[in-house]
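Minimal example, chain plus EPS.
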Amino acid sequence: MLRFLTAGESHGPGLVVVLEGLPAGLDVDIAAVHHQLWRRQQGYGRGQRMKIESDRLDITSGLRFGRTIGSPVSGIIHNRDWKNWQKTMPVDREAPAEATGATRGPVTRPRPGHADLAGAAKYEVSDLRDVLERASARETAARVAVGAFARQLLERFGMRVLSHVTRIGEVAVADASAADLAAIASLADDAPIRCVDAEVEAAMVAHIDRAREMGDTLGGTFEVIVDGVPPGLGSYVQWDRKLDGRLAQAVMSIPAIKAVGIGIGPDVAATPGSNVHDEILSAADDVRDTRTWSLRRPTNRAGGLEGGVTNGEPLRVTGYMKPIATLMKPLRSVDLATFDEAPAAIERSDVCAVPAAAVVAEAMVAIVLADAFLERFGGDAIAQIAPRVDEARRHVRERFQPPSPPSA
Ligand code: EPS
């Protein structure tokens, strides 16, 4: 329903996005798109590049008077750093006479953990820059721009996308799944790590400082949460329609993400069923939320998905990020020009980008969820979708409630 492409090299002129499938009639807050791009640039542990960039999406189509018109939304995020790379990254055989920046020699020592070596084997290039420019996580800025539109569609229908960082290297919050939504929602966007526990956050910052001093890098984990999700998105009837699988693919596709968990994630393997599955209780005796069904779940270890279908509980998706592959104290590698053993190349880089990855994962989750939402309720225009959503809500509310007492 919703599809997008991105293009662009890390040190080229910019990143281009094309997003197709947004219904017409969605009021878009363009400042909010820029705000998401800004959020991705925050976080303790980022390197010098983020001081150069100030990402904004220059929108070229799809909107008129701030509203979607059903046509593809497209735009470009200009790389401010481009002015320093015009002689290294020209598109033509020779850089134009007016090109600025340094002329850099070829990169020949692949970094263990980066796409350098595998990419060189695949595309048969001798300068690893041809690989690393596109493999760079700079591309995630484009995904955040796309995600910002998906997120506004979800918000229009009462969903809210949040995230928080739960581990940096050895330092972790005690129980990530216990963090409450209000605390996560109130995290400041410019907090150093965006962790709900201030003491743990201070220890995370110190951990990153130590890693930087050692010339090392750190990974970690983050959780993305979406509340207000209607039950019934995704499906169990075919493998590629299971929403947990689609979310895992989307989050795993973010550079450096090596595992994805839904709800309590990998802990399910070591925990008995009685402590994994979330009981289903009647909400009849509780203060009932009249907007939804008369059922409640005392726990949400399943992370809002059962059978690959949303179950009305908040969606909880955890991403596990490996440490960044560029080490200032490099690992051993081989110079592919001479075949001598040599330390891996050092490219300017970040020490830790877990807080940024959390923002990127919010975008990817929003895109997948918006796609599943449009599958269920989709139409060409917001005006067609809104009554379908209302009707489904009413149906769920009426279908799942205690039978009325027999009339006398
Ligand atoms: C990256 C290396 C660094 C990061 C970059 C990802 O860039 P540079 O080589 O220009 O210093 O800053 O991330 C971004 C530019 C970004 O926008 O997130 C890499 O090798 O993946």
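The longest strand covers residues 160-168. The chain is about 30% helix and 20% strand.
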